[in-house]
Specification:
Radius of gyration: 15 Å
CATH class: Alpha Beta
Distance between the termini: 31 Å
Order of helices and strands: EEHHHEEEHEHEE
Strand content: 25-35%
CATH topology: Aminopeptidase
CATH superfamily: Gcn5-related N-acetyltransferase (GNAT)
Number of domains: 1
Strand order of the largest sheet: 1-2-3-4-5
Helix content: 25-40%
Shape: globular
Number of strands: 8
Largest sheet: 5 strands, antiparallel
Amino acid sequence: MAAESLDCFGTSRLVAQPISAADFPDIHRLHSDPKVMKTLSADGKPLSEEATREHIRQTVEHWEQHGFGLWAFRRKTDGHFIGRGGLKIYQIEGKDVIGLAYAVLSDYWNQGFATEMGHASLEVGFGRLGLPEIASWTLPINLASQRVMEKLGFRYERDFEFAGLGHRLYRVVAEEWTGYHGAEGDQGV
């Protein structure tokens, strides 16, 4: 599927657009948030400007190569950046795996945004890209992310190592995914 067909879409509260270099200030603010990075970066610390620029470069390249990737999610009402999320190909144990990723600025936690972004990304993955399955993973201490995955229909599969750290791997297959229809109004994570 061409990247143009997935350039922009919305949920009841958010608008999603592919991450680009223009998103640097917002993505760097996310990567500088110590609460977010505690469970997102390999060392649990905020990322440098250089690391954020490299992340954006890789994200843009992923879009160019695969026609899908990570979106910047902004509030419809005022365009304010909430977080980033989407689908990306990762190498896990020597195999390509489509993974769901999401991260929300800590000021917006517990308002259902991660679940809403995840749901929208899964709808694209299963409904528009026709993917057979999608995985997601998090550190064992990130209970909020595990709840998001479970709300979205993911099932715990096993523990494994990713980026040198122990993670919990979850997976959802297209045949079993029915969507999470309460995502946009959910006041959870």
